[in-house]
Amino acid sequence: MISLSQKESDGDDVLMIGIWGPGGIGKTAIARAIYNAIKRQFQGSCFLERVRETSNKSNGLVDLQRRLLSQILSSGHLLVPNVHDGISLIRDRLPCKKVLLVLDDVDQLDQLDVLAGEGHWFGKGSRIFVTSRDKRLFTLSRCKNRLYEVKPLDHDEALDLFNQHAFSNCKKHEIRKDLIGRALHYAGGFPLALEVLGSFLCGREEPAWESALHNLSKCPDQTINKVLKISFEGLENNEKEVFLDIACFFKGKNIEYIKKVIDNSRDFDTTIVIDILIERSLIRNEHGTLQMHDLVQLMGQNIVLQDNPGNPGQRSRLWFFKDVLDVLCEEKGTDAIEAIVVDFLTPEERDLSLEEITIEADAFKKMTNLRMLIFPKAHISSDGPIHLPSNLRWLKWPNAPLPKFGSGPKELIGLDLQKSHIRQLNIFKHFRWLKYVNFSQCKSLVSVPDFSSAPNLEFLNLDWCESLVELHQSVACLDKLELLSLQYCFNLSIFPHTLKAKSLQTLDLFCCCKLKKFSDIPEKMEHLEELDLGWTAIKELPASIENLSSVKLLNLEYCKRLTTLPSSVYKLQNLLYLNLDCCSNFAVFPRNSTDPSGNPGFRNLYWLEFGGCNLSEVEFLESSSSFPKLAHLNLSRNKFTHLPTCINKYDNLEHLIVDNCKQLQKIPQLPPNVHTLKASRCRSLQEFPHLSGLSSNRLLVEFCSCRELSRKGANTTDVLSLKVRLFSLSLSRTH
Asked: Which chain positions lie within coiled-coil regions (predicted)?
């Protein structure tokens, strides 16, 4: 950072350099070292420590201005009546002086405004170093600035600093390397923690080290904790609540998941709050997950534990499985509990979760303020339905006993009961705010009830509900539903006869083996992009399929009863991927009979799969204008004898697969961009195209077991002449 300052020192600009990071990371030490190293290069210098602490005192800002002026001007008795006069004095007395100014531990913009509001207050070439836990201060400053983020020490640096304090100036004890490693892990590269912990352990023997490190893993060192807690105390109430949620429950989780859960369990949006916590160095975004230093997490958890150290039923948040079981089994719950999240089990807790645990039906009765309940898969049972508070917003409880809510309006937004033993759902009355429902792997569930009293539902997952027979018509009419997934519902046979969910984006019916009929679509559905009907028993698609105007993926693989598609399928102009692989009775793909409006066909389709169908002709390909962007065409294992000669007009075609087309006799000239041609086991093939006209520098060509080609001694010279360009080549051979 010294080099950063000196790099710009030749210029006349006044430069502010921000030193940003969490408490205890060494910002002040860095600023002090820089100050001592370069202060002789300036006409005046001043190091103002503890700006945050001093400014909170009566006339604190005035005192800071007085010290700044006195040190730089070497004047012992300078009168500064008030803040405004102090600003005037700095602007009037210092614009001709090249100064070095360090403002340590700044946490509010007004502190910068009265001490170094603008660059022209100081002489050319001046440097202002500011240490802060809040990144946003530097974006709001009116001075030209550079920002330096202080990161934890690496292992070698941390070990060196720790050794200086743990093994210097005291009687040397032999300490195991694993204990030193645990101490370094606890400190996590924070200089303050390394110094405090090293000094505390200095001169102690191994049993004392082990005891101290064990205790610190449960309760933080108060000296370190006090420094870290300063950042927390400067937060607004909403920011504190979100920070504590992350510290107790969500460290390391995906940001979008965290936002979804917290947003929907509180009455405010967390997007800006998370940004603020990042700016204050309390959390960080790492590849889409929220992380925080272990010491910062321990500080947050300790704040909650101090609500009532001896009685978990009186704390706002519970995250230890043992504490939760103590509260539930002993019915110690109170209205103080706002959230229960047990997302990780220690080995000891995992063993405990395998035991049969019985709780009373009213175990949650007194938790009237419970807003979030996320529980691990555990063997918890009850004599009857578990009564849950109506204020609950988010419930995730795999393998849960049957839940029961009060008769009035419910606040529930997220409901995840996957792997539960629910047979009938009779709980969806007065769930107006419900958005997310996951009943996946509820293998006893037979039917899905009327969802019309949940008009805000956006997500419904019923994957692997193997006993599910019927989906209620109301589900297909939910205006806000975006995802409906019923993968592997092997017994589903009754599906809504009409589909009107106008916000639906994804509909997945993959492997619903007994589903014979797909819904009619009476109105435009402009948001549906993915429709998966693979491995179903449907015989046809309705002509109204054209109303899926935005669909991009249509999967019909292994629909063995499907014989054709309606010609209206050509109106799916946003379709990118169409898969009819292994539709063994599919005999005719419709031709595009251009309508009066000049329908151009599949103008965006690039992937088309017909492998294992029953096509005896491919006349639909004669209209190349219907497939202008087609890049991948798989026609393997079909019965046609010829490809249309106009195949050479498919300018974007890159992959052509006709393996095992046993009646295929001729492959015409191909378009220039083809770089994969697979025609193995085409036993009737007699002619193949010249490949010299292909432009690709990496060709994959396969003609394995094309016995008619071999019997007639077809000329392979053209292929062999391209061997320099061939990535892979398999010529005819007989077996």
From this structure: none
φ, ψ (nearest 5 deg) of residue 532? -115, 110
Instruction: Decide: helix, strand or coil at residue 422.
Output: coil
Q: What is the CATH number of domain 2-149?
A: 3.40.50.300
Cβ contact 126:101 at 8 Å: yes
Say if pTM beats, i.e. exceeds, 0.85.
no
Using CA atoms, how far apart are residues 117 and 140, in angstroms rounded to an integer? Answer: 11
pLDDT of residue 138: 86
| DSSP summary character for residue 166 | H
Domain ranges of the chain: 2-149, 155-218, 224-293, 307-412, 415-551
Kind plus residue range of the DSSP H or E element containing 403: strand 403-405
Q: What is the CATH number of domain 415-551?
A: 3.80.10.10
Contact 239, 277 (CB under 8 A): yes
Q: Going by C-beta distance under 8 Å and a sequence separation of 6 or more, which residues neighbour residue 316?
A: 244, 304, 307, 336, 337, 338, 339
Exposed e or buried b per residue across 360-396, where buried means at least 16 C-beta atoms within 10 angstroms of its C-beta? beebbebbeebbbbbbbebebebeeebbbbebbbbbb
**Residue 43 corresponds to which tokens in the numbers above?**
């006409």
Query: What is the CATH architecture assignment of 224-293?
Result: Orthogonal Bundle (1.10)
Same fold, 224-293 and 415-551: no
For the chain, give percent helix, strand, coil, nearest 5: 30, 15, 55
Question: Which backbone phi and psi does 713 adopt, to 5 degrees?
Answer: 65, 45
Tokens describing residue 120? 């022209």
DSSP characters over 283-321? -EEETTEEE--HHHHHHHHHHHHTT-TT-GGGSSEE--H
